[in-house]
Amino acid sequence: MEIRTNVSLRAMNTFGMEVKAACLAEYSSAGDLRSLFPAGELRSDLPRPWYHIGGGSNLLFTKDFEGTVLHSSICFTSEPEPAGDGEVKVRVGAGVIWDDFVAWSCGRGLWGAENLSLIPGETGAAAVQNIGAYGVEVADIISKVECFEPVTGKQVSLPVSECGYGYRQSRFKGEWKGRYIVTSVTFLLSGNYSPRLDYGNVRSAVESVTAGATLTPGVIRDAIISIRNSKLPDPAMVGSAGSFFKNPFVSEDVFRHVSQVAREEGLGDVPHFTSQDGNIKIPAAWLLEKCGWKGAVMGNAGVWGKQPLVLVNATGKATPQEILALEEAMVRSVRERFSIRLEPEVEHI
Ligand code: EPU
User: Fold this and answer.
1) Does the pTM exceed 0.90?
2) Which of 37, 91, 142, 274 could be bridged to 150 by S-S, CB 3.0 to 4.6 A?
3) Which protein residues touch ligand 1 with a CB less than 6 Å away?
């Protein structure tokens, strides 16, 4: 385990915010975690509060952090274990880079994770946030989540059915916040042919690279990577935290109001998707585009020209205040024009 004080977090958040943590503890086993929480609380010589980060790809540090940032270096991928009907279970350490696991599973010809290619972050955080893209959520392929519980010092194993997964939601983010630290995730993957191509332009992107050849998880991974690269900034070049806002679910009344505004202002049909509970999902990207945010710049902060859901550290020198000012202006404009309050997907610390 490595414990350092007064550490720059710039390389540990994909937005590239220049903030510091009073202390950073990088642990590599459940035993390390037990020693960090000897009596149900963080070791008394370490500054509080504590906050656990993954790849820092879904958060915005709004100022220096006065406590201890925890980060997992639990990095292992087990050999696939047969689970019947052509399926296998694979247990993965929380600190494994998410996309390294996706590349590994596609390389083995295993179906399940390919649509989630190239999402930044680590495996433990993926299970906390229920990452999703191109018609798949990580909850669809999780079998169980193993965690350390600081208060009891115990290791617990939570089946997927107990994790309360929903759109970018889980009990880890809600009522269990701070209760568990994910140490590993077990996935259920399939050796049986099972491509999922029904989201947006996935099918046409796949067909353009395969030209009729047999589909494999690796081929779909390549197609997803090319879609993402064409729409989203390369994290190595431009700081961002991916989609900054969630897509809002609204009532029929609100949807009617948005449709009326769109008609009056000649904005065309409002893209939408009706969920099982009758609420209607409107893409935040559409609302933001219609408010003129694509490619906008405010000081050192900006909005990605090809996807207005993505706020960027345009010059590499943006401060948290500049990102927050841009966020506020975007939320205000959507609220004033469409009466919808956008919620950030990115966690503010
Ligand atoms: N749209 C516009 N203008 C744009 C882009 C999109 O009007 O510039 C509208 C279109 O109607 C389009 C719709 O928005 O059909 C949906 O766009 P897209 O498929 O690109 O997805 P998204 O809703 O913008 C979500 C996730 C992404 C994920 C993509 C693909 C959220 C908040 N975002 O974006 O996740 O990659 O779907 O599945 O759910 C992330 O979470 O960081 C992330 C990038």
Assistant:
1) yes
2) 37
3) 133-134, 200, 242-243, 246-247, 271, 283, 285-286, 289, 307-309, 345
**Ligand 1 test: best mutation among 199, 231, 243, 273, most atoms within 8 Å of CB?**
243
pLDDT per position as a tens digit, 127-148: 999 999 999 999 999 999 999 9
Consecutive H or E run containing 319: none
What CATH number should be reported for the domain whose range is 239-348? Answer: 3.90.78.10
Atom of ligand 1 nearest to the CA of 200: 19
pLDDT band at 212 (very low <50, low <70, confident <90, very high): confident
Question: In angstroms, how far apart are the furthest CA atoms of the chain?
Answer: 63
Distance CA 238, CA 95 (A): 23
Q: Which residues pair with 65 in a beta bridge?
A: 21
d(CA 30, CA 182): 10
| Residue range 14-54, pLDDT digits in tens | 999 999 999 999 999 999 999 999 999 999 999 999 999 99
Please provide the DSSP assignment of 236-278 as one string.
TTSEEEEE-BPPPEE-HHHHHHHHHHHHHTT--PPP-EE-TTS
CATH 3.30.43.10 is right for the domain spanning 2-72: yes
Per-domain residue ranges of the chain: 2-72, 81-231, 239-348
User: Can you read off the two tokens belonging to residue 68?
Assistant: 């201890």
Q: Measuring CA to CA, which residue among 161, 71, 158 is closest to residue 122?
A: 71
20, amino acid identity: K
Tokens 């140490």 belong to residue:
183
Give me the architecture of the 81-231 domain, per CATH: 2-Layer Sandwich (3.30)
